[in-house]
Amino acid sequence: MGHTGLCIRIFAENFSIHNSQFNMNLILFGPPGVGKGTQAERLRDHYHLHHISTGDILRAAVKAGTPLGLEAKKYMDSGGLVPDEVIIGLVREVLLRDQAEGKGFLLDGFPRTVAQAEALEKIFSELAIPDVHIVSLDAPEDELVTRLVKRGLESGRSDDTEETIRRRLEVYHDQTSPVQEYYNKYRSVHSVDGLGDIDEITRRIHRTLG
Ligand code: ADP
Fold first, then answer.
1. Pocket test for ligand 1, best of 58, 136, 155 (most atoms within 8 A of CB)
2. How far is the CA of 8 from the centre of ligand 1 (A)?
3. Residue 50: which CATH number?
4. Active site residue 157
5. In the predicted structure, residue 177 carries a pLDDT above the cut 70
6. Catalytic-residue membership of 92
7. How many CA atoms within 13 Å lie on the side-chain side of 199?
8. Is 147 a catalytic residue?
9. Measured in angstroms, how far is the CA atom of residue 27 from the centroid of ligand 1?
10. What is the whole-number distance in angstroms between the Cα of residue 196 and the centre of ligand 1?
11. By percentage, how much of the chain surpasses pLDDT 90?
12. What is the separation of C-alpha 83 from the centre of its chain, rounded to a whole number of angstroms?
């Protein structure tokens, strides 16, 4: 290898070490209405992360009328989950792209089932992603319903009607809260109280992340 080639290699290696040291990767976990979206935007800006919201990706696909959107709409409108194989493939593609660009990520709304969490672990080892912090936000169910009904009135989101909200919370208890148990077993989880002032919740997250 010539001098220039060697220099490029040393630079590339240092660059990738530098990147993996400073890239923060986060999973923001919690029930519908707990404030993941709001906190995700703040964390994205603070740590310069790519915010990957599966809900936003699916809503954009529905709006654009793509095959994914047409498939997803029926599940979303009923408050159910889009099938694992659809959403896992989608997240994998986005993470592959992020890695190529050397960006840290913030996952919001994924994983939502244990199968998704297991698939994500495989993607992490495939892409050699070392450190991932899990922040789990929580709030009492009454508060979640109140917030979601209010958001429905303001945003006009088609799945923020009272009946669909109840269904989404049920789906959360049945299919998503086992993900928390899964992570409690295999990874360390930063639990944060999602009740209170938005700025205070952001400070709590920063404190727990150190
Ligand atoms: P919220 O957290 O307020 O319920 P999201 O915007 O995260 O809303 O998701 C909206 C809907 O999109 C979900 O109810 C579900 O139908 C679908 N969805 C989002 N993420 C996933 C996922 N990881 N797996 C399956 N379905 C998903």
1. 58
2. 43
3. 3.40.50.300
4. yes
5. yes
6. no
7. 0
8. no
9. 15
10. 24
11. 77
12. 17
CB 104 less than 6 A from any atom of ligand 1: no
Taking only the tens place, the pLDDT of each residue in 62-102 is 999 999 999 999 999 999 999 999 999 999 999 999 888 88
- Residue for token digits 């992340």? 209
Q: Which domain holds residue 66?
A: 3-209
User: What is the tens place of the pLDDT at every residue in 133-172?
Assistant: 999 999 999 999 999 999 988 988 888 888 899 999 999 9
pLDDT at 6 over 60: no
Q: Is the CB of 35 under 6 A from ligand 1?
A: no
Residue 149, pLDDT score: 92
Interval between CA 82 and ligand 1 midpoint (Å): 8
From 86, 112, 145, mutation site for ligand 1 pocket: most ligand atoms within 8 A of C-beta: 112
Please give, one letter per residue, the 3-state secondary structure of 23-75.
Answer: CCCEEEECCCCCCHHHHHHHHHHHHCCEEEEHHHHHHHHHHHCCHHHHHHHHH
For residue 182, name the pLDDT band (cuts at 50, 70, 90).
very high
pLDDT for 10 beyond 50: no
pTM, full prediction:
0.87
Give the whole-angstrom CA distance, residue 104 versus residue 178: 26
d(CA 156, CA 131): 37
AA letter at 163: E
Strand partners for 28: 108, 135
Residue 177 to residue 9: CA distance in whole angstroms = 45
